[in-house]
Design brief:
Number of helices: 3
Oligomer: single chain
Number of domains: 2
């Protein structure tokens, strides 16, 4: 799943949780008015119920990813110079025409 899809799913989940929480609170009030007795749900129980309903609605089980090791992605040695280094690039920056940006190469040499 890419970042955009994850972000959309997170937004939808948040909105779904919010609406379910609101409807549970309304149901709690309605039950209280009908019976004339107290229905007690504290915030933890309410949150647990909304999480359970969201999981059922989305049919998603929590993913338990195990990170074995972190290492940088393999890339070409000069891949960083394929796009202009500056926010407003030089007029004849080679990176604009598919080459390597001279400013980026100079900056890399100074840093090393």
């Amino acid at each position: 799943m890419d970042k955009h899809t994850k972000k959309q799913l997170k937004r939808q989940t948040k909105a779904l949780k919010k609406s379910l929480k609101r409807s549970l609170k309304e149901a709690k009030k309605a039950a209280k008015q009908q019976r004339g007795e107290m229905v007690t749900l504290d915030n933890k129980q309410l949150k647990a119920m909304t999480d359970k309903l969201v999981a059922e609605a989305l049919h998603i089980e929590p993913v338990k990813a195990k990170v074995i090791s972190l290492r940088p992605l393999e890339q070409e040695a000069m891949a960083f110079a394929r796009r202009p280094y500056k926010k407003s690039p030089c007029k004849r920056c080679p990176a604009l025409s598919g080459g390597l940006c001279a400013c980026a190469i100079k900056k890399q040499k100074r840093a090393a």
